[in-house]
Amino acid sequence: MKIFRSFAIALVAALAGTAEAKRNLTASLEILAYNDVYELLQDSVNGMNVGGPSRVVPIAEEMRAKNPNSLVLFAGDTMSPSLWSTQFHGMQMVEAHNRLGVDYATLGNHEFDFGIEGFLNVSSASNFPWLNANTFEIETGALLRGTEPRAVRVLSHPEFGTIKIGFFGVMYDMKDSSKGLFWSDPLEAAKRQVDILRNREKVDMVIALTHQDLADDNRLSKDVKGVDLIIAGHDHTSMLQTNFGAPYLKADFDFRSIWRSKVDYFKAEGSNTAAFRMDHHAVQITEDMKTDAKLDAVIDGYTKKIGELFKRQVGTICEPLDLSNKVVRAMDAPIGHVFADAQLNFYGEGTGDVSLMNGGGIRTDRIYPAGDLTLGDVMGWSPFGNMVMIIETDGASLKKFITKEMLGSCGAGVVQLNGFYVHTAGIKYAFKCTGSAKGEITSIEWFEHPTRTGPVQDTDKFKTVLSDYLYNTEFMTIPGVSSTVVISSAEGVRIDAALEAYVKSLPNAELCEKGPSRNSVSF
C-alpha cells in the first residue's frame, strides 16, 4: 500500500496547477527498467522459480509492439558475481541484454570485477551505449573507455506523439584505485549533465540512470534539479520513492522483478508549464510466464558448458551446509568458519595469524544438502574472483576494521543483511549494537592460535589474511589504520581456489565444520 500511495501522490504533483486549462497530451512512452542482474537461469525462492531474462524478453517485445515509443533501461551490475561470471566474465549476460533490446545502461560496481579490459570486452559486445559521467581512468584521466556521459533520443510516432529525451549515467565513488579508476562526485556530474541536456540539447525530459545506494539517490532526487525520472540500482530491493523530488525506481535483482512505467508528457502551453503523468508498476517475474525461444537456446549452450564444472568432485559435505543470506550476513556460521579457515591455511602454517571474511562475499543464498561437493559448487560460493592477500597490521587497526563493518550491520534491533558481517579465524569477538549504525566491540580474543592467547591488545602485531576487496574498499578507507602488504593481490590466489584446496586437505576431503562459535552480536 505504501508504494501505491506514493505513486498516487506523484500523479497529483505532476499535474498540479494544470486544472485552469485542459491539457493536450503531447506524447506517451513506455519504459521497462531493471538492475543488478547476474544470472541467466531462474532462482528458486521458497520452492518457486523466479526471475530470469528469458521471461522478460516477451514483455519487452509486447511493450514495443503496443507502443513504439518504448525504452528498455538497465541501471548497472551484471558482469559478476555468479558461477557463470567466473567462467565467462559477464559476456553471457550481454547476450541477454542485447536480446532484451536495451537502449541505455549505466555502470555498476561489479562492472570492474575483471578489470578495465574485462569491461571493455563487455562494452564492445553490447548493442547499446553505456552511460557514465563520473568514472575515469587513472592512467589517462579520461572518461572510462567504452562509455559515454550522456545521450539524446527523439521518440516519435504518429499515434503516440514526439518527445526529445536526454539520458545520463552516474555511479557512487568506489574509492578503489586498484581498479585503475577514480570517480568524481556523482551529484556534481549529474548537475553538469542536466545543464548540458536542458540548455544545449533542449530536451523535453531528462532520465538519470544511477547505481548507488538509496541515500545517495535521495540526495540526487532532492538536489539535482531538472531530472524528471531516476532509474536506479544497487540496493537489491524493489522500491519506488517519490518523497524528495524526481521519482526513482529500483528493481531487486536477477530479474526477480522489473519496473514498467507509462509516461504521458504535456508540453508547455499557454500559462501551463510542461508536465508529466507517470504510472509505475512493479512486475514479478514468475515461472508461469512464457519464455523467449532464442534466448533459451543461448542459455542452454552456456548451461552445457557450466555442467562440466559441476561434474568435477572436490569432496563431500557431511551434513547440510547453510549459505542463506539470513545466516551468512547476520550471525556466526559454519560456512563463515570454512571461508576464514581456507584463507588462513592456504599459504601454509605460520604465514597468517588472523583471517577475515565478509558475509556479503559468501554467495548462492541456499542450503547445500549432505553429499558430493563439486568445483562448480565451490565456485558459486565465491564467484567474484577476489584474491587472498596477507597484510601485517596491529590490534588497534583490527578493532577499527571490525567496528566499522559491524556498525554497518547494526540496525534498529536487528542485524541488517547488507553483507558487512565479519567472519573470522584466529580470533573471536563479541559486538553489541546499541542502535542503527551504533555499537562497540565488547570483547576480542585470540582463538585457537598456536602461540597467542587472551585479549587482542592494540599494540599486538600480526599478519591478517583477507580478500583484496576487503583490503582495498573497506580496510584502507578507515582513517588511522596500519598495514604493510606481505602478499599482494598480484601474488595471491583466488578465494575459490583456496576453498578447493582446503576441502581437499581435510581427512577424506570431507567438509564437516562443527566448531564452537567465533563471534556474536547482541542488542
Characterization of the model:
- This protein has 523 residues and is α/β, with parallel strands linked by helices.
- The protein has two domains: 2-36 and 128-249 and 262-280, Metallo-dependent phosphatases (Purple Acid Phosphatase, chain A, domain 2); 312-522, 5'-nucleotidase,  domain 2.
- The chain is 29% helix and 29% strand.
- The strands form eight sheets. A six-stranded mixed β-sheet has the order 6-5-4-1-15-16. Strands 8-9-11-12-14-13 form a six-stranded mixed β-sheet. Strands 19, 22, 23, 26, 27 and 28 form a six-stranded mixed β-sheet that branches.
- The radius of gyration is 25 Å and the shape is globular.
Overall mean pLDDT: 92
Main beta-sheet strand count, sense and barrel state: 6 strands, mixed
CATH architecture of the largest domain: Alpha-Beta Complex
* Estimated radius of gyration: 25 Å
CATH superfamily of the largest domain: 5'-Nucleotidase, C-terminal domain
Strand order of the largest sheet: 6-5-4-1-15-16
CATH class of the largest domain: Alpha Beta
Q: Quote the CATH topology of the largest domain.
A: 5'-nucleotidase,  domain 2
Task: Tell me roughly what share of residues is in helical segments.
Answer: 25-40%
Number of helical elements: 14
Q: What is the count of β-strands?
A: 30
Judging from the principal axes of the Cα atoms, what is the shape?
globular
When the domains are counted, the total is 2
Detail the poorly predicted runs. Answer: 1-20
Strand content: 25-35%
SSE-based structural type:
alpha/beta
Distance between the termini: 31 Å
